[in-house]
Amino acid sequence: MTAQILAERYEVQRQLGKQTGRQTLLARDMKTQELVVIKQLFLGSDFEWQDLKLFEREAETLKALSHPAIPRYLDYLEIDEPDSKSFALVQTYVEGKTLEEHLKAGRSFSESEVKELAKSLLEILNYLHELNPPVIHRDIKPSNILLHSRSGNSVGQVYLVDFGSVQNQAAKFGGTITVIGTYGYMAPEQFGGRAVPASDLYGLGATVIYLVTGLHPTELPQQDLRIQFADRAGQLNSNLIDWLEWMTEPSLSKRLSSAGEALRFLKNSRPIDKNPMRVQPQGSGTFMEVLPQASKIKLTKTSEFIEIVIPSQKVGFSSITMFALAVTATFPLLHYIYTKWIEIYSSQINLSSYVIQGMLLNAIPMTYFPAIMGFLTFPQFRELRLRIERQQIFYTSHLLGLTWNYSKPAPRQEICQLEIEQLEYRKDFSAKKLRRVTQMIVQAGNQEYQLGVKEGLSESEIEWLATEVSQWLGLKIIRTLTDGKKKISM
After folding, report:
1. Angle, in degrees to the nearest 10, between helices 197-213 and 238-247
2. Which of 161, 185, 239, 367 pairs with 143 at a CA distance of 20 to 30 A?
3. What is the DSSP letter of 427?
4. Backbone phi and psi for residue 99, each to the nearest 5 degrees, phi listed first
5. Helices 197-213 and 111-129 meet at what angle, rounded to 10?
């Protein structure tokens, strides 16, 4: 039987898989003599243009990737045969079995192997999510994970394959919603057509749950969309159970937000607080959330917008006392100026000292008016609202029923960077140690929107808000340290 040769170069060895309208082949590159994998999409009766769009997206994504644990793009072909037309994606061949195949063959994994596997996959995801723009796999599951060269207690080399569901985070809002993923491993937000880096973490968490229980997530009970697996996980360490529950948290705002963060907690086995407070629903799909430890900041998130509300701080007794002391301290100076003016003007102009005295008495309240207004309009005494919608980002102040822009609005598409900046400076020249403060900066074109100490936020509140904004925008957090005029990445 004559071997099939595609594009006069690739000699087909055998079929690796087949689905409706497509197949995967193992072939030999007759030019390099290397084995390659060819994914072929046919233009048949059941062909849909969405399939071709995803196929081409996979090819473009692989072309831009360079990671030892991801198959490398080699070629993209249009193949015309007498009875069919197809498109083909050629990539490097990875020898090994999928995680699904290992489990079906009865292979078990120790807790150390499970953690080793999870760490390897998180490192791959960290690479993908830190690209600009981030690359979201959207279909993390056992059949898309290959293991090769297992030795001793090592799980072996881990590979992530099948980028046919990949999404580039540069995708715009709107348009037709396409639900892509595998039920049981697909994060809840993906059912609405939305995917962010944390969506891949959900798929990884569900995959590890399959490893430790031997059951697909769809075979396990659920409560409030949470996978109930702990009683099936044997003697698994409680920290690892907590970590898996955090990875598969159905609420996007409560789930681990990045592969780097997930890797850090997995390695350090730190106690996990997974329960931000959630208060009254604001409507379908809309919730207001506040940070634990009695933070007064309110966060509203929907598919349409995210809004951070920093309430005004009431003017308490101590604030009023400070202002009264300031007024008292300046009164002798004003009285001295007042008496001197009376002496000077009564001698220079033809007005009695009583008339001049009346004029100055009327002017004194005007002297204090700017101070009073400045006191009331400090950021702490205004309600501040940072709101990002599909079209624009707004930062407004609210005081006594009035609203004005705290910073100029900017188009949503100009948002290019989310930064947590640590500033180091000396409060005064006598201070020996540097003081460090933290602020969150949303960069939109040339416009910066800052939330930090001057708005009365703590470092934990800034970290929380940055994480929420990062998840909603699908934009990674950049951390910097500024000492004087020099800014460095952390």
Report:
1. 140
2. 239
3. S
4. -60, -35
5. 170
Q: How confident is the model over 274-329, as pLDDT tens digits?
A: 444 444 344 434 444 444 445 678 888 876 789 999 887 654 455 555 555 655 66
Q: Tokens at residue 163, please?
A: 């980028």
Could you say which DSSP state residue 269 is in? T
Report the percent of the chain where pLDDT is more than 70: 72
CATH superfamily of 97-274: Transferase(Phosphotransferase) domain 1 (1.10.510.10)
Q: What is the CATH number of domain 5-92?
A: 3.30.200.20
Report the half-sphere exposure of 278 (CA within 13 A, side-chain side). Answer: 12
Please state the φ and ψ torsions of residue 97, each to the nearest 5 degrees: -110, 150
Tens-place pLDDT, residues 47-95: 788 888 888 988 998 999 999 999 999 999 998 887 889 999 999 999 8
Q: What angle do CA 414, 165, 34 make, to 5 degrees?
A: 115
Task: For residue 113, give every residue at least 6 positions away whose Cβ sits within 8 Å of its Cβ, in sequence order, or none.
Answer: 153, 154, 155
Residue 91 and residue 73: Cα distance in Å, rounded? 5
189 Cβ neighbours under 8 A, 6+ residues apart: 195, 196, 199, 252
The C-alpha angle with vertex 439 and arms to 407 and 398, in degrees rounded to 5, equals 35
- Of 270 and 206, the one with more pLDDT: 206
DSSP letter at 391?
S
Higher pLDDT, 272 or 203: 203
Structure tokens at 303: 């598919």
Question: CA 481, CA 92: separation in Å to the nearest integer?
Answer: 41
Residues in a beta bridge with 447: 444
The closest alpha carbon to 443, from 387, 384, 379, 393, belongs to: 393
Edge-first strand order for the sheet with 5-6 is 5-6, 10-19, 22-29, 35-42, 84-92, 73-81
For residue 170, report the phi and psi dihedrals to the nearest 5 degrees.
Answer: -80, -5
Q: What are residue 82's phi and psi, to 5 degrees?
A: -55, -35
Residues linked to residue 77 through DSSP beta bridges, in sequence order = 88
Confidence of residue 189 (pLDDT cuts 50, 70, 90): confident
Alpha-carbon distance of 35 to 92, in angstroms, equals 7
Closest among 52, 57, 54 to 42, alpha carbons compared:
52
Question: Catalytic residues, which ones?
Answer: 139
What is the rounded average pLDDT for all residues in the chain? Answer: 79
